[in-house]
Inverse folding.
C-alpha cells in the first residue's frame, strides 16, 4: 500500500538533512514500528520507553532526536529531527498518500434535481442527496450517506459510508466517519405537572474547516440558533455533542465523551475519554479535562487541568484519590484506636503518593 | 422556515390574553433568544439567570411570568403565562410546524409483497421492508431504514434515516432518530469451565406510543419475553437498553446512559446523562438518578433522588464528595499532628459545603 | 417461532436422562420463565433467587440441579443437569434454531466484479461489496452493509444490516450486529506548538473466529500493524476499541466500555459495562474489571479483580467506598468533637460494611 521512495526523496519532502555518508539511493518500502521494522523500512523513536527497541532495531533509517541518534545500531541511518512524532506523521503522509477522489455520481445514488453537485465531487452507491443540498469540489460522499435538504458539504470533505447530515453546514477538508449523525433533534422537553411536551428543535449545526468526527458520534442541531464545531476540531468515536454546544478551534475530544446542552469549550481544549461536561458551563481556552471526569461548573482559568467528578484541579483530585486509596488499604481492628484515630498517616501518605500515570489523553 | 403570524393569532392559539393596548396585528416572524431577538421576533423568559437579558431585549413580545412582566423594556409586549417554558414550546409548534408527510413509496425502496403499508404512509429511498411488516397510517420510514420481518410501526410514527427495527412492535406517534438499533440480540452467554455458549435471544421489543429515541441508541430484544419501553418515554442519543429491561411511562433518559438486563424503571423516572443502572434492579416511580451515577441496587422510595457510584441518596453523596474534596485540599506536613489528627475540620466543613450545582439533568 | 419437540427428543439432544415414569411423548412448545411457563413449556432453575417461583411453576418440565429437583411441584418433570443455565442455552438452540441462510445475491446490491462471493453466501438488498473483497461460504451480508476493498468475511459469518467493514479480515462464524463500524481510522494526531497534524492510520483490523460484536460498537484500524480481536471474544453494544488494541481469546466486554489505544487484554478477560481501559496498558489473563471502573495501569496478576477509578483490587475499592459512604452519612455538628475526631468509627465500620452486590458483570 505504501509508495516506495529513496532516502533522498524522503529527506527532501521532509526538509531534513541526511547524515554524511548515508546512501541517498537506498529505497524505503514501508513505515514500521522499531521492533518489527526490517532492512527496507523507516521507523521512528519519540517516546523514551522505546529506547531499548531503538538499540536493537533492524530498520534502514529512524526518525530520531539528535540526543538519541547515538542509540541506533551501526548501519541504521539516523534521520535527526526536532520532533520525531511530527516527522513520523509527515512521513506517513508521503508514503501512504490518501487515494485521489475520482469524480462521478454512482448510478445507484439518488440525487435530487435541485441539489448542486460539483462536477469534481464523488457520490458513492446508495447515497441520497435531498433538494437544495450543495456538495463542494472534490468532496467524497460515501455509500449510503444521507445529505438532507439544504445541507452544504464543503470542498474536499469526505463523508465515509453511512454518515447522515441534516440541517447543517459542513466546512472544507473535513473527515466525517461512518455512522456519524449530524443535525438531528436535540433532547428538549418542557415538563410541568406530569405534562411533558417536546420543544421543537428548529436550529442547525455549523461545522468549520478541517474538522474530523469519529465513527458513530452524534451532533444535535440547536433548539434555536446553531450548534458550532469550530475549525480544526478533532472528535473521536461515540462522542455526544448536544444542542447549542460550541466547541472552540483545534480542540480534541477523545472517545465516548458527552457535552451537554449549551456548553462552550474554548480553543485548544483537550477532553479525555469518557468524560462528561454538564450543560450551560463554559471552559476557558486550553483547558484539559482528564479522562472519565465530570465537569459540572465553568472553568475560568486558561490552561487549567481538571479531573474527577465533580471535576477539580487535577492535583487536588490526586490528593483526594490518594487519601481515598489509603482509606481502602487500612485494615483497622476494632480495638486499634491509635490507627483508628488516624487521619494522620492518611494525610501524610497523601503527600508522598506518586502522581498517577494519568493524563487527559490517557483514554485515547 | 417559520410561519409568520400576528400577535392575535398567536394569542388565540396559545389561549392567552394580550395586554391592553397591544397591537394584535403586529406580525411575528420567528422565535429567538432574548439577546438576539429583534423587532419581528417572539422570545421568552423562564430561567431567572436571563433576567438581565430580558431588561435589554429588542423582541416584539416575550412570554413571561406575571411577576417578571415589569422587567421588559418599554415597547416590548409582555405575554403573561404561568409556565413560560411550556408556552415557548407551544409557540414553536405553532410557528415551526412539522412538515406534513406526503404519502408514497419511493421507487428506490425494497418492500416485500407480504408487507402491509398503509396508503398514507411514506417510504423513502433505499428503505427495506421485510415480509409481514406493517406500517401504519401517516408513518414516515426514512431513507435506508430497515423494518424486519413481522415488525409493526404504528400510525404517525417517524423513523429517521438509517434506523433499523427487528422483532419489535412500535406504537403510534413515536420519533425514532437516525442510527437507532431496535430488536437485535441481547448480550447473553452461559459460561462454565471456559466453555462459553450463546443464549439464543428469542424475545422481542415492545415500544409504546409517543416514545422518542435518540440517534444511535440501542434497544436489545429480550432473551425470552419482551423488552418494554412504555408510553411517552423520551430517550436521548447513544443510550443502551439491554434485554428484558422495562422503562416506565413518561420516563426521560439522558444521553449515554446504560440500563443493564432485566432492570425495571418506574413511571416518570429521570436518569441523568452517562449514568448506569445495573442488571436485575427495580426503581420506584419518579426516581431521579443524577448524571454519571451508577445504581447497583433497587431504589424503593418513590421520588428518591440518588447520586454517585454506588449510588446513594444525593444529600449523602454531596456530603461524601465534600469530605473527599476536603481531603484533597489539605496540605498536611509530616509533623503537623493537630491537623493530621483531623477528621474534625473535614467533617465540619462537609456541613457547610455548598450544594453543588448538580442535578439529574445536568448532563442533558 | 419455536420448534415443538417431545420430551424424549429434547432429552436425546441434550444428552440427559428422563426421570422414571416421565411421559417421553409429552410435547414441549416453547421455553418460558418459571413464573409464566404453562403446561406445554420447558423452563429452568439456575439462580437461587427464583426458588420460590420454581415451587409454584406450571411448566411441563424444568431443567434443574439435582439438589433442587425436589422443589418442583407434583406433575412438573425435573430434568436434572449439572449446569441448568448451560442446558437452558442448549435447549433454546434446539427449539429456536437460527434461520438457514438462503444463498443468493439481491438484485438490489452493488457487488464489484472484482469481489469474490462464495456461491453459498447471501447478500441482502443495498449491500455494497467493493473490489477485492471475499465473502466466505454461508456468510450472510445484511441489508446496507458495506464491505470495503480487500476485506475478507469468513465462512458462516453474519453481518446484520448497516454494518460497515473496511481494512479488515473477519474470521468464521462471527456475528456482527447492526451499525458496527470496523476498520475506520484510529484517533491519532501529532501536536507541537499548536500545530496539529493527523497521523495517517495505515494499519488494519483482524478479527478471529466466533467473535460477536454488539450494535453500534466501533473498532478502529491500527495506525501501523493490526488491531486484534481474538477467537471467541464477545463484545456488547456501543463498545469502543481504539487503534492497535489486542483483546485476548474468549474475553467478554459489556456495553459502553472503551479500550484506549495499544492496550492489551489477556484471554478470558471480563470487562464490566461502562468501564474504561487507558492506553498502553496490559491486563493479564482472566482479569475481571468491575462495571464503571477506570483502569489506568497494567494489571499483572492472573485472575485479578479490580474496581473503581483509578481501578484497584476490588476489596480495597469496597473498603474505600465504605469509608467514603461513612463520611457521607456522618452528621457532625460543629461542637461535636468526639465524633469529629472520628476516623475510628469510620474505619471500624468499613470492616463490617457488607460486600456490595457488585460484580464485573453487574452492568451487563
Amino acid at each position: 500500500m505504501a509508495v516506495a521512495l529513496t532516502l533522498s526523496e524522503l529527506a527532501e519532502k521532509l526538509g531534513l538533512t541526511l547524515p554524511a555518508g548515508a546512501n541517498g539511493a537506498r529505497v524505503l518500502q514501508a513505515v514500521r514500528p522499531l521492533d518489527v521494522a526490517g532492512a527496507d523500512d523507516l521507523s521512528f523513536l519519540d517516546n523514551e520507553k522505546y529506547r531499548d527497541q531503538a538499540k536493537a532495531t533492524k530498520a534502514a533509517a529512524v526518525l530520531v532526536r539528535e540526543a538519541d541518534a547515538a542509540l541506533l545500531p551501526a548501519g541504521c541511518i539516523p534521520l535527526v529531527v526536532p520532533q520525531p512524532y511530527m516527522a513520523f506523521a509527515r512521513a506517513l503522509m508521503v508514503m501512504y498518500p490518501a487515494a485521489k477522489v475520482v469524480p462521478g455520481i454512482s448510478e445507484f445514488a439518488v440525487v435530487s434535481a435541485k441539489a448542486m453537485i460539483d462536477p469534481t465531487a464523488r457520490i458513492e452507491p446508495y447515497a441520497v442527496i435531498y433538494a437544495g443540498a450543495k456538495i463542494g469540489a472534490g468532496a467524497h460522499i460515501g455509500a449510503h450517506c444521507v445529505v438532507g435538504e439544504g445541507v452544504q458539504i464543503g470542498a474536499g470533505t469526505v463523508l465515509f459510508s453511512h454518515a447522515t447530515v441534516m440541517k447543517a453546514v459542513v466546512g472544507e477538508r473535513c473527515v466525517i466517519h461512518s455512522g456519524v449523525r449530524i443535525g438531528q433533534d436535540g433532547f428538549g422537553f418542557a415538563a410541568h405537572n406530569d405534562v411533558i411536551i417536546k420543544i421543537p428543535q428548529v436550529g442547525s449545526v455549523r461545522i468549520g474547516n478541517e474538522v474530523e468526527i469519529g465513527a458513530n458520534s452524534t451532533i444535535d442541531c440547536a433548539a434555536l440558533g446553531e450548534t458550532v464545531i469550530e475549525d480544526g476540531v478533532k472528535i473521536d468515536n461515540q462522542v455526544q455533542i448536544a444542542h447549542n454546544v460550541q466547541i472552540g478551534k483545534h480542540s480534541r475530544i477523545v472517545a465516548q465523551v458527552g457535552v451537554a446542552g449549551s456548553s462552550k469549550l474554548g480553543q485548544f481544549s483537550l477532553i479525555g475519554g469518557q468524560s462528561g461536561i454538564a450543560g450551560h458551563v463554559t471552559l476557558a481556552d486550553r483547558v484539559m479535562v482528564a479522562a472519565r471526569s465530570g465537569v459540572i461548573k465553568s472553568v475560568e482559568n486558561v490552561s487549567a487541568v481538571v479531573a474527577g467528578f465533580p471535576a477539580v484541579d487535577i492535583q487536588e483530585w490526586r490528593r483526594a484519590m490518594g487519601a481515598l486509596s489509603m482509606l481502602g488499604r487500612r485494615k483497622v481492628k476494632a480495638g486499634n484506636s491509635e490507627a483508628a484515630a488516624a487521619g494522620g498517616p492518611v494525610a501524610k501518605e497523601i503527600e508522598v503518593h506518586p502522581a498517577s500515570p494519568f493524563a487527559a489523553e490517557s483514554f485515547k
